């Protein structure tokens, strides 16, 4: 019987250690932090959206990079199987809006607690406060790892479950990419993703904290519409964030980071076509006929946005409503249908939910997660070049790739 070393006690590493050891493989889980699952702890705003209760076909529609690579892992350990697994180790789950799955307790700490219990029950050994410094391989196969303690730990299989670069304070700071490169693995371009967008406009600061519901956010570059969706977004002190923006960041991370000019437009009234909006403006103006322009918009726009829009419209704030011309009104309507914002850059890793890019999946066996270059070396979780939208999909990628690799070592080593 051989020994498995799992590097990293995050989502993927914990699942892999629990499953492999339960399957009879001698397993050592090495985590550099003082405890397991530091990032899992902060997921889903502390509630951990651990998966999305959808079938694999729908799941794959939410994967942004290399969805084909994930077919086998997801069919082998689907969201439903994941829910069943967590229930079997004691974690009660519930399903919320958008099929998002959470612990019934609303505590991400319970996901860690039950995974840790499962690991201990399976007999896997956990080494905390210990970093892997180097993976040792000879003649095209892994032999073990060198630890921060100076010790050499012999292993017949090594799982790299070191995560990406985002939220480095949780321990994921890119070691896995370094290990991979040392063995000739290609690492694709790494970028922060599911992250806020910094804007050139400084007026966003004036509306910091304002959340817009039911707006359409669209992105254009080189005259092409690259993204357009209806939903929710919010303003921050130096840009925009919220669900629509996170999705946009995921789809346009490359375009934005390559220095392309990206212009955004917010349709503040997507339910009204231009003619309907004009009618609505006429009605509002008629009701406020003797007031000043800036004081006539209370029913149409959130109050903190009014001074911003008024200033962008070029119509003097104190202009008498009955003096506003038809041309002014139609230019104002056009502004409401397409409030312009220019992208400065993406937010950084400190605030990015995930890292886009990673281990080139062409060099990884999609059924087992094993390297095609070094025998016994496996890559699981966020370190791979796979990523998805928010909604529990990224953790499911960690669970499924971990499970695939664990099954493979059970077959190979036990
Ligand atoms: C704020 C936030 C909220 C999120 N919310 C959700 C959500 O609700 N749902 C969802 O699906 N996804 C969510 N995600 C994404 C999700 O957390 C990640 O996709 C997932 O944790 C990746 O799992 P992983 O095991 O690959 O990496 P990680 O969970 O990052 O684990 C990597 C582990 O490896 C350890 N490590 C690194 N290098 C070494 C080394 N050399 N030696 C030993 N140990 C090492 C690290 O300390 C760390 O514990 C969120 C992410 C963030 C940042």
Q: Which sheet architecture does the biggest sheet show?
A: 6 strands, antiparallel, barrel
What structural category characterises the helix and strand content?
Answer: alpha+beta
Query: Outline, from the CA principal axes?
Result: elongated
Percent strand: 15-25%
- Indicate the CATH topology of the largest domain: FAD/NAD(P)-binding domain
Helix content: 25-40%
In CATH, what is the class of the largest domain? Alpha Beta
Low-confidence stretches: none
Which architecture of the largest domain does the CATH hierarchy give at level 2?
3-Layer(bba) Sandwich
- What ligand molecules are bound, each kind once? flavin-adenine dinucleotide
Distance between the termini: 5 Å
SS summary, helix count: 12
| Superfamily (CATH H level) name of the largest domain | FAD/NAD(P)-binding domain
Number of domains: 2
- Number of DSSP strand runs: 21
Mean pLDDT, all residues? 97
Widest beta sheet: strand line-up: 13-16-15-14-17-18
Radius of gyration: 25 Å
Task: Please write out the topology.
Layout: E1 3-7, H1 11-22, E2 26-30, H2 38-42, E3 51-52, H3 56-61, E4 63-65, H4 71-76, H5 79-88, E5 93-96, E6 100-103, H6 108-122, E7 125-127, E8 132-138, E9 141-147, E10 152-154, E11 157-160, H7 175-182, E12 191-193, E13 197-199, E14 211-221, E15 224-235, E16 239-241, H8 243-257, E17 263-267, H9 274-287, H10 306-313, H11 326-337, E18 339-346, E19 354-356, E20 377-379, E21 387-388, H12 393-413
Parallel strand pairs: 1-2, 1-11, 2-7, 11-20
Antiparallel strand pairs: 3-6, 4-21, 5-6, 8-9, 9-10, 12-19, 13-16, 13-18, 14-15, 14-17, 15-16, 17-18
Residues 7-13, 30-33, 38-40, 42-44, 48-49, 131-132, 161-163, 166-167, 170-172, 175, 353-354, 381-382, 392-395, 398 line the site of flavin-adenine dinucleotide.
């Amino acid at each position: 019987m051989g020994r498995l070393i799992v590097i990293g006690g995050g989502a993927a590493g914990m699942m892999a250690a629990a499953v492999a050891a339960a399957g009879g493989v001698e397993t050592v889980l090495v985590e550099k932090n003082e405890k397991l699952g530091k990032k899992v702890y902060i997921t889903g705003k502390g509630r951990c959206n651990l998966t999305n209760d959808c079938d694999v076909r729908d799941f794959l529609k939410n994967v942004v990079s290399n969805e084909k690579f994930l077919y086998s892992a997801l069919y082998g350990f689907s969201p439903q199987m994941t829910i069943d697994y967590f229930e079997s180790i004691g974690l009660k789950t519930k399903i919320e809006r958008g099929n998002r799955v959470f612990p019934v307790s609303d505590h991400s700490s319970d996901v860690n607690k039950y995974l840790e219990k499962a690991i201990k029950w399976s007999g896997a050994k956990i080494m905390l406060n210990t970093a892997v410094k180097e993976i040792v391989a000879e003649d095209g196969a892994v032999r073990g790892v060198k630890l921060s303690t100076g010790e050499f730990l012999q292993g017949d299989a090594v799982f790299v479950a070191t995560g990406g670069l985002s939220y480095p304070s949780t321990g994921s700071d890119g070691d896995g990419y370094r290990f991979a490169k040392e063995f000739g693995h290609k690492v694709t371009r790494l970028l922060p993703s599911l992250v806020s967008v910094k804007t050139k406009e400084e007026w966003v600061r004036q509306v910091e904290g304002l959340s817009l519901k039911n707006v359409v956010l669209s992105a254009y570059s080189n005259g092409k519409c690259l993204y357009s969706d209806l939903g929710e977004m919010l303003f921050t002190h130096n840009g925009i964030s919220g669900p629509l923006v996170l999705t946009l960041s995921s789809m346009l991370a490359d375009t934005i980071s390559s220095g392309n000019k990206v212009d955004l437009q917010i349709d503040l009234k997507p339910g009204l076509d231009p003619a309907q909006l004009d009618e609505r403006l006429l009605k509002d103006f008629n009701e406020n006929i003797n007031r000043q322009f800036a004081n006539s918009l209370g029913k149409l726009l959130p109050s903190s946005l009014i001074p911003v829009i008024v200033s962008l419209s070029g119509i003097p704030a104190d202009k008498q409503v009955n003096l506003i011309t038809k041309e002014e009104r139609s230019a104002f309507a056009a502004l409401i249908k397409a409030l312009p914002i220019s992208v400065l850059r993406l937010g950084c890793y400190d605030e990015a939910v995930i890292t886009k890019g990673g281990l080139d999946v062409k060099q990884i066996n999609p059924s087992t997660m094993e390297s095609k270059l070094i025998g016994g070396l496996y890559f699981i979780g966020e370190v791979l070049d796979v990523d998805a939208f928010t909604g529990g999909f990224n953790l499911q990628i960690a669970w499924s790739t971990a499970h695939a690799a664990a099954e493979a070592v059970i077959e190979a080593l036990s």
